[in-house]
Structures are given as structure tokens and as C-alpha cells.
Design brief:
278 residues; mainly alpha; two-stranded parallel sheet; two-stranded antiparallel sheet; 11 helices
């Protein structure tokens, strides 16, 4: 039986004492979500209308696939930029032979992102969104670039951390790797749980937070987590084509984005994250 939970009362996790460090152990999210904050209802209406308008444009614009390709290049550049890659869209459209040698690593990361997104979206024509699809996408994302030796296509089997130089001074330590398969399994069930009445935009808001908190891969979690948003919207039929990309907005509001994710963990405040996301 799926548990009913009010968003305002939700406890997203707790610190888990490990040897010489504390990891953050998330609680599950495959729940019947409810909330009291009326702002969420208003934002849901506004956001749903905007998505429908965007989708309608994508169905009538001539040569929309060319537009989408350029949009994907921009998304790839911006999403990689959040992670520290410095390829801009004018570099991304060049052939590899035209790229300066010192920029080639960054260029390859952007091209991998484009390929990963394209193949994942094509795969959605045959299979639903799944953990397996995310692993396949991660393998493409990490092939032949920095991080290629960090288990591409597989969940991590060691402890990772965010910020700082080690576990002793990390900004955030995700859950122990033993918890990752179970937590990702719960997340996958939440995407497809038809026994709960939770709007898709709430599901993907919660899912993006949960994915970034689990941090299931050794590298590339930010890019896969942002790509997850687009894949979910297409899989659920909110978009017919991949026309919505949030990395440009998140790059321009990077501090607020990270602060909002952190606030959930520090203050048990999922509501402010959902409002920011919407």
C-alpha cells in the first residue's frame, strides 16, 4: 500500500554515521503526495499551460528538428558548463578537426551529451523511462572523456562526495553505495505508480531532487539528473518533442538551485524546492 504524505510534513532523510564521516540517507519518495500550500496549485496551473503552449509550437514550427538540434547543442553546452566544462555553442557546432586541441576534451563532453540525449529519446519510442535507460545514457555520456574510468553505465560501488577535497571536508556526502540500488528502484516505481494521484510535474520535481541526493554514479550525476527532466516529460506525453531544457536557467541561477536542493536536506523543506522547480 502506498503511504499518504503531506509535503509539509515529509522528512526527506537523516544522517547516517559511517566510519569517520556522516552520509545522508534519503527516505523513499514513492508516496501519495499532498500539500497545503496554495502556491503550488497556482504554479502547477501556470506551468502546465506553458508546457502545453510550448508543445503546440513544436508541432507547427517548420523544420522543428533543426531548431531542436541547435537547442540540444545549447543545452549540452550549458549543462556541461554547470559542471565546469567551457565549450560554448559556437565551438560545439564545429567539426572535431576545427577545434583547438586544448578545447577538445570539453568539446567531446558536449558531443557525448548530445549523443546521450538523442539516443535516450529515441529509446523512449520502445521502452518506458527506467533505471536501465539512465545507465545506458550514462555510459554514452562518459565514453572517452574525463570520468571514463569511473564506472560508466554502472551505479557506484564506493562512497562519493560533493564539494571539498575529501570526505572530511565535503559539502555533501550522498548515501552509502549499498543503498543506491534500492533507492533508485523506489524512484523508478514512483515514475510509473498508477495507484497514486500525483501530477507529473510534482513527480519530476521530487524525482530530480531525489536523484541528485542519491548521486548514484561516480561522475555525471548533474547532467543525467537534468536530462532526466526532459526524458520524463516526453515519456509521460507532456511533450511530443524534446523542446524544454532547463540548464540555461539553472546555470544563471546556480546558487539558488543548489541552495534550494540543500534546503530540503537541512530543513526538511520539500515545498520550497517544488516551488522553485515549478
Amino acid at each position: 500500500m502506498t503511504v499518504n504524505t503531506k509535503m509539509e510534513d515529509y522528512i526527506p532523510g537523516e544522517l547516517d554515521q559511517r566510519y569517520q564521516y556522516q552520509a545522508y540517507q534519503p527516505n523513499t519518495v514513492n508516496l501519495q503526495w499532498n500539500w497545503d500550500n496554495p502556491k503550488i496549485n497556482t504554479l502547477l496551473e501556470t506551468t502546465s499551460r506553458a508546457l502545453a503552449e510550448l508543445n503546440a509550437y513544436s508541432l507547427i514550427v517548420p523544420d522543428v528538428d533543426l531548431f531542436i538540434y541547435m537547442h540540444v547543442l545549447k543545452e549540452a553546452s550549458q549543462s556541461s558548463k554547470i559542471e565546469g566544462t567551457q565549450t560554448h555553442i559556437d565551438d560545439a557546432i564545429l567539426d572535431e578537426s576545427q577545434v583547438d586541441p586544448e578545447k577538445r576534451d570539453d568539446w567531446n563532453e558536449v558531443q557525448n551529451y548530445v549523443q546521450a540525449m538523442t539516443e535516450a529519446i529515441t529509446e523512449l519510442d520502445h521502452v518506458p523511462l527506467s533505471v536501465r535507460l539512465l545507465k545506458q545514457t550514462h555510459a554514452i555520456l562518459m565514453q572517452g572523456v574525463r570520468g571514463e574510468h569511473k564506472a560508466p553505465g554502472d551505479f557506484r560501488t564506493s562512497q562519493n562526495w560533493i564539494g571539498g577535497t575529501s570526505l572530511s571536508n565535503a559539502v555533501f556526502i550522498p548515501p552509502h553505495h549499498d543503498s543506491v540500488p534500492e533507492l533508485m528502484g523506489d524512484l523508478e516505481k514512483f515514475w510509473h505508480n498508477q495507484t497514486v494521484n500525483v501530477p507529473d510535474l510534482i513527480r519530476i520535481a521530487v524525482s530530480h531532487y531525489q536523484f541528485e541526493t542519491i548521486h548514484p554514479f561516480l561522475d555525471g550525476n548533474g547532467r543525467i539528473g537534468r536530462l532526466l527532466i526532459t526524458l520524463y516529460l516526453i515519456n509521460r506525453g507532456l511533450l511530443d518533442k524534446p523542446t524544454l531544457y532547463l540548464s540555461d536557467y539553472l546555470e544563471r541561477n546556480r546558487a539558488q538551485y543548489y541552495d534550494s536542493l540543500t534546503q530540503v536536506r537541512l530543513s526538511n523543506d520539500m515545498t520550497q524546492w517544488v516551488i522553485f522547480f515549478l
